Amino acid sequence: MSIGEEFGVTEGLDILPGNVRHISNHLPAGTDGPMRIPNVGWRSVTPEHEVADGMWAGNLTADTMYYFVHSYAPISEFAMHVHARSDFNGLAIPVAVKKGNVSGVQFHLERSGDAGLDLLESVIGGWR
After folding, report:
1. Among 46, 51, 84, 120, which is disulfide-ready with 56 (CB 3.0 to 4.6 Å)?
2. Is the pTM of this model over 0.90?
3. Nearest by Cα to 86 from 110, 60, 109
4. Within a 13 Å sphere around the CA of 59, how many CA atoms are in the beta-carbon half?
């Protein structure tokens, strides 16, 4: 990302244009109810567009649940880099991004059970 805000404003590597910002800075106006930050727990992901090959192929489906622990989210400047989002208090937070051969996820693969292992295996292949 271009800029991160987690420990003050810090320049990033700018591989993926955008900012890593605190979730509360992006909630829609009029969001009702308590906002639990950090966002902890199991959440489903919603693919942004179909990916025919590569690490996301066949793994990021609308019913797949992953385990999250985060207070910040990558806010990409380009929708084409966002491959999946997850809903948090009415905000569709980017949770899987990719540009070229650089990919990242917001959730914890190692805590996401078989879904996380399947995604990890699609990246490094044939280790299980």
Report:
1. 51
2. no
3. 60
4. 21
